[in-house]
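Can anyone check this?
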Amino acid sequence: QVQLVESGGGLVQAGGSLRLSCATSGTIFSTALMGWYRQAPGKQRELVADIAAGGGTNYADSVKGRFTISRDNAKNTVHLQMNSLKPEDTAVYYCNAYRRVGGLNVHYWGQGTQVTVSS
């Protein structure tokens, strides 16, 4: 049973910072591509950032230079440091773990954490 539990969301003023964390259970973390997605009201879920097992990272253009994704393999945890937040960053943020298993794309999702940035 794989579980992803997010924490760290909240309300912050524009220009402020938040740090999201995602703790995982199960045995997948060490080999999974870990990512953060977000979904704003009325919009599709979009990739914010991801980090490979080896540490390679990928960011959406809208967050480059402001957000940093990192992973702690000893604690099975992935973090998203969000700086210089903007009102348009307001969304529910979801942690994701992805692996390819037996030719299938397998995704695990957390329950989501709300981030609200006030102007």
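Reply from J.R.: I decoded it. Residues 38 and 93 are 4 Å apart (CA to CA).
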